[in-house]
Amino acid sequence: MRYIYQAVERIPKPLSKGVVYHSEEFEVGALLCACGCGHRVSLLVPDSHQITSEGGMATVRPSIAVCDAPCKSHYHIRAGRVEWLPAFSDAMAVSVMRGQIARHAVCDAKRQSWGSRVRVAVARAYNKLRSMLRI
Ligand SMILES: [Zn+2]
């Protein structure tokens, strides 16, 4: 089986086999697990994975580790081709999940600091305006 790349606005509810869906707007990707177990694999783009099209075929980086399904599959998708990697042990799966959660925490912190910078800038502009108008 080969995976084609499909850009979508929203990830459809029933996924088709052999399609990597990518929604740039919602920063997510989705595909049906390559092992055929029917598990819906969700990817956070670009937080955890990058999805690109190579002549219409999907490339996903880095490898996909299915931690939340019994198959525990682990594979690369390169130009639509699935390359199998050794299955993750439970301990490795846990550490990957932890890594992904940690990355999210970092992302949220960045977002927060950006928000507070905006607030400081708005307050500064407001104070300047106030001093100009002497109110
Ligand atoms: Zn599977």
Structural class category:
alpha+beta
Give the distance, in angstroms, between the N- and C-terminal Cα atoms: 70 Å
Radius of gyration: 21 Å
Residues in β-strands, percent: 25-35%
Write the element-wise H/E pattern from the N-terminal end onward.
EEEEEEEEH
Map the helices and strands.
Layout: E1 4-7, E2 19-23, E3 28-32, E4 40-44, E5 50-54, E6 57-65, E7 74-78, E8 81-84, H1 90-133
Parallel strand pairs: 1-2
Antiparallel strand pairs: 2-3, 3-4, 5-6, 6-7, 7-8
Could you describe the 3D structure shown?
By secondary structure, the protein is an alpha+beta fold. The chain has two domains: 1-88, no CATH class; 89-135. The chain is 33% helix and 31% strand. It has one helix and eight strands. The protein has one helix at residues 90-133, and strands spanning 4-7, 19-23, 28-32, 40-44, 50-54, 57-65, 74-78, 81-84. The strands form two sheets. Strands 1-2-3-4 form a four-stranded mixed sheet, with no helix packed on it. A hairpin with a 4-residue loop joins β2 (19-23) and β3 (28-32). The longest helix has 44 residues, at 90-133. It starts with a strand and ends with a helix. The model has no long low-confidence stretch (mean pLDDT 86). Zinc ion (ZN) binds next to loops.
Q: Which features does this protein show?
A:
135 residues, alpha+beta, four-stranded antiparallel sheet, 1 helix, 8 strands, elongated, binds zinc ion
Please provide a brief summary of the model.
The protein has 135 residues and is α+β, with helices and mostly antiparallel strands. It contains one helix and eight strands, in the order ββββββββα. The chain has two domains: 88 residues, no CATH class; 47 residues.
